[in-house]
């Protein structure tokens, strides 16, 4: 099974690799042009400077409703000595936009004339020459430049072009991409029945993501059918593409150095490999090549790698082909909520959630793996950590490139703390009625939530910390860990915690006491989570030693991950909420009903966003949806349990 | 001719009018939904929350190329005591993305194994459990919320949806607009031959501008054919539309209170007029109405009024119908280059050009008339001057809403001063090679340019100021007016100035000395322009009194406007450059060849942008295009004439 492996050429930095690409394809921008009607030109790029064919207005026009007069005939008119004008001789009724009659050079507003009879009017003030007249060419003069070449046509431009007598324009042709998805594991979504999906099969999605990204920056794409990891087939497809009218060819997948990675071989066979491997993360296994003078890129198969590769290499190529500047993301200063180490010698694109808490924008890192598509769909921004930097400090502001408008970041409610499935329902209900608001949750456990409040990096925290002395929840922890912070405690739900086990409970687990059995593999929650505290409390009550539990050291961060561990057979049991077990059709052995509250610092409690959030929690819709999950009680939902 | 006139209802403020509109149509957001494939959902809005159907990965997968092992079997391996594993029993070759074989729980990278033979390998370090494995559900857990309702689908989202087993989604239907252009003066561009266009006829463009703006925010539009100002026809069209499947109806034109403005009458007859007249500028004559529970808006006919009305009223309505927040323009702090008075009681949308000069973004106001479409196509931003404010002070920073990205504003070269047609060619040549750069010219005359440099609100100024003592250009003025500013003087062109007269010179004008003739109407340039200084100098030389010249007090700001005045018959002669006369096929009587320079402060001279601008001036392409205009000499073009 082990066969020939490629070897990376000397890796290039992102900057070097981009320079190599842009230098080699500097003839871009010479793609051919096409003529389109002006309304159809919106979103397209002018291939030539466009000059006006006619003036606008194309005549002297009335700018008001009223009468047209020769200004000189009105001189001397005053309230004391009004001047009479004969309609049809000295004065001509006229509406806005009408042509000024010959021998007139001013308009008097209708409101300022006294009508004496059908033929005579009176004015009480003189008109000065050219008053209320839009002079010919006032807006656009024939022959003048309307827009330079490489100008991106907007809806507004349509008005200026048509008004200037320009009805068709020459625009740059859209660069045409071929995207070839490769990989024996890939299946077409159109052909997929989920129930038949086999382990190891993956629904192909990158080609659509890349294609839609290409469309968004002005290109078109054709998607090749999925190719298995068959070097001959891939070679044939790339060769065909190089000989047809595609401007850029992307081979998606197989760009790495594995035994079944053929992109490099194909590109080298048919043309030249210019770069293999870029010191960036995600996106390291990128290939830049040239076949028949066309750029051919080997795009890594991991989704975030594919996206970063596209945005760093393919998009600028498209922009150049269209005579457009690279798309520069808006940047804003943010503060990472914690220290983040990063590898020296690699430029990392760290995806972060952003939210404005107080007067700072705080950045919460998302999973860093290239395979996590949700790490970019959930991201509000990207922090670039350069090659020579070892990471971010937690108090030092850095710049983030924004993936959403700053206004969205400013309207994000940052929730950090314990994980609960009802937070998703809350996010959805909020978005239903208040589409400008967003809830961004990070799951770091209840203690992590309190610490986030202490450091001022969230608006509120979800918490279910059991005081094992008196059976109360959260209050004593807040007193201990947030002595100087005034907070309000609002109940979100009561919920059932218990053991999540395989359907039918094949190992016949009856409770916590069985976790010490040798045949049971446990999956734990991270230290500092309320669930972990609950477990440890129960173990102490039962006099059990955590060392006796197999898998105690294996930690997950959410209830759903615990449930997945059980579902996949990685573990036999884990402590978690009923909703997680139910979602994945697992069995559930109740252990305790616990109180899950929102801890809200007073300084945020009165803000508009939090007020709306609390209103939403108190709606019947929210409570109904929570109850439908099962394992929840909403009796005290939305009530302030302590302040 | 004078007939019944409408009367405005009590005018509303912008805020009041918006509240009335949004309150009346608060049921928006209940438009119907449709199901589309996930790739086709990009740019659409989710009508329902979307949860994952499968996990991603849907199995435990290798995250690296290597061998899959049971971690426990590797414990104890070290460099000193390597551990041997049997391929096919203890170790299984595996590529990235492959399913982890049963009874294995870790992957060792291919780089870290020693192959002993086909069946045996050796490792020198232990594997910890789950290393280099992407666990089932690591990215997406089945049943979890992927995106809430009202989420706008991006290309990235396609990846998460397909990976989560979601292949089709329910999205909000695009709101459907009918746009009815009305006005007897309007003609269809498709039917228009420019040479047959009669004075008073106007090429209809608003409907396309509004339609394309509607498309840009997620709606679709149907354009009605142009209707003349015929109340019956308009009534019929609006009634038909109200009875069909349109969601929003726009009547463009005829919204004011003139004798041929029928929109209000039609809306009131068929339904109810809620607002007529809004205290904003442009856009005052807006009508908000309701027919059959549908919003029907009377949109003013002036192009900028139409655009502002759309963006303030129609776009938010579309956003609401799509469950989207209003589009919030990015704002930036700018400094107006001069004091700007504004009317109390009216909210003005002042269009401005923006450019970064030094560390400030300076704002140059564009023409304020609602009829000037170029005032919005050329604008980089809009300064909103509230009802209760009488205007802007010149040194006081204000916020501008951006119409282009800030990066574009930062790459704008701000040219203020004398007008010359070659500046357009320069702008075009620059954009051809450096699409990220923009030239923004404001024409305030040569002296205005020097004053702009003095106040630090431009990067360079065009100037042709004749020293009437020694015949030199610019240098003595710079010494006098910019004593403390170090500047470089670069020649742009030498150019012919002369009298622009009608074709065939019907009044037989031979030179400046004829301007005193009683039968000649002159058109002048504004005080402070180099051309005005030249004229006054010549008049003194000739011993002529400016009072003897009819039209001396009529001023235009550019050579092209002077030429238009002659073309339109408003004037018989004006002093201007040959290029302007030639462009409009007018005759030209040479008076003088003059030097036109660029005055560049030293602090900007060495910047990248100015360097590129000067390089462009020195290219053969630029000089050739300038020569083709006629009346120019490029002998010294691009040379530093003084520093």
Automatic annotation (TrEMBL), chains A, B:
Official protein name in the record: Molybdopterin molybdenumtransferase
GO molecular function, one term: molybdopterin molybdotransferase activity
Biochemical pathway: Cofactor biosynthesis; molybdopterin biosynthesis
Domain of life: Bacteria
Cellular component GO terms held in the UniProt record: cytosol
NCBIfam families the record matches: molyb_syn, PRK14498.1
Role played: Catalyzes the insertion of molybdate into adenylated molybdopterin with the concomitant release of AMP.
Family: Belongs to the MoeA family.
Signal peptide range in chain numbering: none
Record keyword Nucleotidyltransferase present: no
E.C. designation(s): 2.10.1.1
Transmembrane segments: none
Lineage: Bacteria, Pseudomonadati, Thermodesulfobacteriota, Desulfobacteria, Desulfobacterales
BP-aspect Gene Ontology terms: Mo-molybdopterin cofactor biosynthetic process
Natural source organism: Desulfonema magnum
UniProt catalytic activity: adenylyl-molybdopterin + molybdate = Mo-molybdopterin + AMP + H(+)
Domain MoaB/Mog, first and last residues per copy: 178-320
Known cofactor(s): Mg(2+)
